[in-house]
Amino acid sequence: MTEVAGARGDAPAELSLAAEFDRPARADWERLVNRVLDKSGGTVDDLVSTTYDGIAIQPLYAADDPAPPAGFPGLPPFVRGARPEGHVGTGWDVRVLHTGPDPAATNAAVLADLEGGATSVWLRTGEGALPVPALADALGGVHVDLAPVVLEPGEDYEAAAEAFLGLLAERDVPAGEASGNLGADPVGLLARTGRAHGTDVAAALAARVAERYPRLRTLVVDALPFHEAGGSDSQELGAAIATGVAYLRALTEAGLSVETAARQLEFRLAASADQFLTIAKLRAARRLWARVLEVSGAPGVPLCQHAVSSPAMYTRRDPWVNLLRGTLACFAAGVGGADAVTVLPFDVALGLPDAFSRRIARNTQAILLEESRLSGVIDPAGGSWYVENLTDRLAHAAWAEFTGIERAGGIEAQLRSGELAGRLAATWQARSRRIATREDPITGVSEFPDLDEKPVERPPAPSPVDGGGLPRVRYAQAYEQLRDRSDAHLARHGARPTVFLATLGPLAAHTGRATFAANLLQAGGIEPVNPGATDDVVAAFAASGATVACLCGSDAAYAEQAADVAARLREAGATRVLLAGKPGEYPGVDAVVHIGCDALAVLTATLDELGVRP
């Protein structure tokens, strides 16, 4: 509202920009929506969706939807950002990941990334990745006093730290200029490998680093193991906060103050293509950690946050769609206030990324920063009734997860007992059901697949050093396994497995369901044979050479012809008959495919029937 003076010098009046319009009410909106949905038999309640944390996402949020005050940017609880100015003027830290074992190739790629706009370097070292002794070679020509270096050394974090600190001394980098993170993460190692790694060595290292290098962090609270095991956002956050608390305990026992200990930690969280949940997760993480530090006696230290585009969401099939997923994740990370952002290259699920994919990943951030000016606004999501409400709901769900972990003895006890793994597995099962039924569609894989796509090939990436810990999953993996079966069949027989679309009635009557069936079949690597409108569909089936058929037509056509055509198709050699339509019982039909059906089960059974071996 703005006060304006009247034309004759009257007292200031309140200006209402919508004064000539009726004030809308939620009930008015619901009435209009229900009028539209009533045509298809639905109501406004059908527009409500539920997250894996049980949070109901409403179709409309307004000023009367409750959410606590978010505070101010740069002040506790830091929901609106860790700094008062946000990332205005500087942008967030554009961090690039390098996992290759060849020091010369890594060095060339690192220099290219820094020249192309990256502002920090993330190096995976140790078994299967860059050898620790080659660290100096990989960072040749890199001004480590200007470009922060973040290590991911696995079990060799002590040796990697010594190598990096030696490099700083060799290059005469002033202790006050060294920045980055040495990457110690004993809890993350336990989560990944199932083997215990005491925190005492990491705590002693942090005490030594904190004394001399004020800008260099020692520990990473890596939440990716919980995310990649299929966990929900609150499970990821709860485990991350519990890990952070475990590190606080270890560091303070090593002699550090709570404030100094907190400044030794960096939190690594997944950013997914669900932009609003990602925004809420990053904001909720800051609020949760602020509460921990408030009760620990260091309320003024904000959480240092590194967001990484979700490895679980990347696909091997139609990997070009990963460009869109990475862009959405980066957008959400930037809006959510992440201090550093890593957009994984679109081909990361296929092997070692090439120069082109790394360049595109960098440029994704450059476009959002330089052209879209995404960092030009402090907390752009602040004040959104939806985001503020979602942030609050997610924070409460994550706090419940965190306190549950603490009551059970802490994060390490939960990992050793397998209780946390069980909760993550239950979420993964729920997610798998929604993926199988395509309630959570995966574009290019479970929806709109392209069987003629040219394969994208990359050199194999080093195998992650896991085993015995939490599993790594990718959302598309079950469909991709079916496509692999199809590819192997194609290589052996020179053709893909096929299903004949037995179209009933005129073109307009069967096109929609034939298109639906074709899309579903292709998700399993099955080539649909569509004769279009034909006078004798059974003869066309016999001529096609297929052994499985799918009836496609209108409900009226099914009522008149489905049973007869199914029987005739079997007489002509069909070993399995499907039907694309509403769920129901149809004589002679083995399975009905429809929106919400278990597509994975249908496709697996069909490939089995066609003799397509795993």
From TrEMBL:
InterPro entries: Cbl-dep_enz_cat, MeMalonylCoA_mutase_a/b_cat. Pfam families: MM_CoA_mutase (PF01642). Residues 443-470 are annotated as: Disordered. It comes from the Bacteria. Residues 51-121, 160-458 form the Methylmalonyl-CoA mutase alpha/beta chain catalytic domain. GO terms for biological process: propionate metabolic process, methylmalonyl pathway. Heterodimer of an alpha and a beta chain. PANTHER family: METHYLMALONYL-COA MUTASE, MITOCHONDRIAL (PTHR48101:SF4), METHYLMALONYL-COA MUTASE, MITOCHONDRIAL-RELATED (PTHR48101). This is Methylmalonyl-CoA mutase.
